[in-house]
Amino acid sequence: MTPRITPDRLTAGLAALAPRRAAIHSHAAGVPEQIHKKLQGRVTRLVGEAVVDPTRLAQEVALLAERADITEELVRLGSHLDQARVFATGQGASGRKLDFLVQEIGRELNTIGSKSQRTEISTSVVEAKSVLEKMREQVQNVA
Length: 143
What we know:
This protein is mainly alpha-helical and about 140 residues long. The protein contains six helices and no strands. The protein has one domain: Four Helix Bundle (Hemerythrin (Met), subunit A) (Up-down Bundle). The relative contact order is 0.18.
């Protein structure tokens, strides 16, 4: 017999994802400064003492920071987690919706991981994906 998912197990998984999302958000705040330092270091190694246009450097940093920005993904991840909590507590519909939300949470985590330039963010993504995989197994028993 397939084990039945319980709201407690699912809400525990969702509760375990919340601090990982918060950690990712916290570490993401320092990404632009990290990009600036990294780019400045590379430019210095390449051109040595030559003068580099600070405006041009700032433009490059802005472009790289925009590519690495995970704000939208974090907002969507938070929304998906909120919706999943509603369904997990029985206030919403079935396992199919939970299954869909688990897929969407996974997509957001994958995107965050692919954009990540910080080890701390990558670590939090891996931890979150581990929790999510356990939730996926539970939800598939309902769907």
